[in-house]
Write a structure and sequence with these properties.
Largest sheet: none
Mean pLDDT: 82
Oligomer: single chain
Number of strands: 0
Structural class: mainly alpha
Shape: globular
Order of helices and strands: HHHHHH
Low-confidence stretches: none
Number of helices: 6
Distance between the termini: 29 Å
Radius of gyration: 20 Å
Length: 154
C-alpha cells in the first residue's frame, strides 16, 4: 500500500515488474547450469527442442520452484510433527523437491534421467548459493546505507 507522499505510479509498477523478472533470472542461474551441463552429456541430455526461446521457461520455473518447496515444507511439517518422523520429514522433503524440479525440467529434456540429473545438479548448486548468501548477508546490527548517510549528513 502506497503512502500519500509516494503514490504508486505506472512507471513504478513497470520498474517493479522488471526488477522481479531480473531477480527470477538471476536466481534461476543454478537451474540453467544444471540444464546446460546435462545437455552436454551425449546420449543422456537430449533436448526436446533447440529453440532459444525455451530458455525463457526458467523465468517461471524459479517462482514455481519456490511455491512448490513452500507447499511441500508446510504439508510435511503438518503431517510429520513428532519424534522420528522429523528425520523422515527432511529426507522425504528433499526427495519430493528433487522430483518436483525434475518434473519442471521435463520441459527441456526428452528423457526423465536427464531431467533427474539436471535437477540434482541444480539443487546442489542452489544449496551452495543459499549458503553463500547467508554468509554474506548484512548483520542485524549494521545500518542500511541510507540511514548511515543520513547520520553523516550526506
Amino acid at each position: 500500500m502506497a503512502s500519500k507522499d509516494q503514490p504508486v505510479t505506472f512507471w513504478g509498477a513497470i520498474i517493479i515488474f522488471w526488477l522481479l523478472a531480473a531477480i527470477s533470472a538471476v536466481a534461476a542461474v543454478p537451474m540453467a547450469v544444471g540444464v546446460v551441463s546435462v545437455a552436454l552429456i551425449p546420449g543422456v541430455g537430449e533436448l526436446r527442442s533447440h529453440d532459444p526461446w525455451l530458455w525463457l521457461n526458467l523465468l517461471w520455473m524459479f517462482p514455481a520452484f519456490w511455491v512448490i518447496t513452500t507447499v511441500i515444507d508446510a504439508f510435511l511439517t503438518a503431517l510429520l510433527v513428532t519424534g522420528i518422523f522429523r528425520r523422515i520429514d527432511d529426507v522425504f522433503e528433499d526427495l519430493l523437491i528433487w522430483l518436483a524440479v525434475a518434473w519442471l525440467f521435463t520441459t527441456f529434456f526428452q528423457s526423465l534421467l536427464a531431467a533427474l540429473t539436471a535437477s540434482l545438479i541444480a539443487l546442489v548448486l542452489m544449496e551452495f548459493l543459499l549458503d553463500w548468501l547467508e554468509k554474506h548477508s548484512p548483520r542485524d546490527n549494521e545500518k542500511p546505507a541510507r540511514e548511515a548517510a543520513a547520520e553523516n549528513g550526506s
